[in-house]
């Protein structure tokens, strides 16, 4: 059985105010590095065989911090890349909330294709295929995948067996850990979602 630890990148100065998407040059600030280190400390005693990361700066920086206690070098994988939000990238969330298409994102995200960008259904297929490929590569091992909120949300929705239109009900906080077991035979098991180290959580 492969165990996947899906980690959302730590917060950046733009987290929560802008839809950064795939725009380059967005890095962790001092607070982000502190939060990433706290997650690294929580996972330090887990036996990890590999760390994979989205190619964007904020995920690579988070992965570097998390991989350090394990003596591993993160491997960049494009399958973990953020959703391509197209012309929405870089816009404030406040401005996007006013758009008619925002209701589609909230109510029927399976139908949403971002202007000049990617559809959420396509992003889900890409991300799930990446999980399956990496799980097959690391049978009987635990691996860390550092990615983004919507990507982790659509992955968790798939393995929970729920429609993509409900993926917004899966909370994915910055630097949180979502744990999914993918056995070679049998059904996947979602062990934990959005674990942040709070009392009673997975770690």
Describe the 3D structure.
With 203 residues, this protein is of the alpha/beta class. The protein is built from 6 helices and 6 strands; from the N terminus they run E-H-E-H-E-H-H-H-E-H-E-E. It has helices spanning 30-43, 57-67, 93-96, 100-107, 120-137, 149-160, and strands at residues 2-8, 50-53, 75-76, 142-147, 177-182, 189-195. Strands 3-2-4-1-5-6 form a 6-stranded mixed beta sheet. Helix 2 links the parallel strand 2 (50-53) and strand 3. The radius of gyration is 16 Å and the shape is globular. The two termini are 20 Å apart. The mean pLDDT is 96.
Largest sheet: 6 strands, mixed
| Derived structural class | alpha/beta
Total E-strand runs? 6
Number of H/I helices: 6
Give the averaged pLDDT, no decimals: 96
């Amino acid at each position: 059985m492969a165990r996947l630890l899906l980690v959302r990148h730590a917060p950046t100065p733009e987290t929560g105010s802008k839809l950064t998407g795939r725009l380059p040059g967005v890095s962790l600030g001092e607070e982000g590095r502190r939060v990433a280190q706290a997650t690294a400390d929580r996972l330090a005693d887990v036996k990890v065989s590999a760390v994979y990361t989205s190619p964007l700066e904020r995920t690579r920086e988070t992965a570097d911090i998390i991989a350090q206690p394990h003596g591993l070098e993160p491997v960049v994988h494009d399958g973990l890349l953020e959703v391509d939000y197209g012309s929405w990238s870089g816009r404030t969330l406040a401005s996007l909330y006013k758009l008619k298409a925002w209701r589609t994102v909230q109510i029927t995200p399976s139908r949403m294709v971002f202007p000049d960008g990617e559809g959420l259904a396509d992003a889900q297929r890409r991300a799930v295929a990446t999980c399956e490929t990496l799980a097959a590569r690391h049978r009987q091992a635990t691996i860390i995948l550092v990615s983004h909120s919507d990507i982790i949300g659509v992955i968790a929705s798939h393995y929970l067996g729920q429609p993509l239109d409900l993926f917004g009900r899966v909370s994915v906080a910055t630097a949180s850990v979502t744990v999914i077991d993918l056995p070679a035979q049998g059904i996947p098991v979602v062990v934990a979602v959005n674990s942040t180290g709070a009392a009673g959580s997975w770690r």
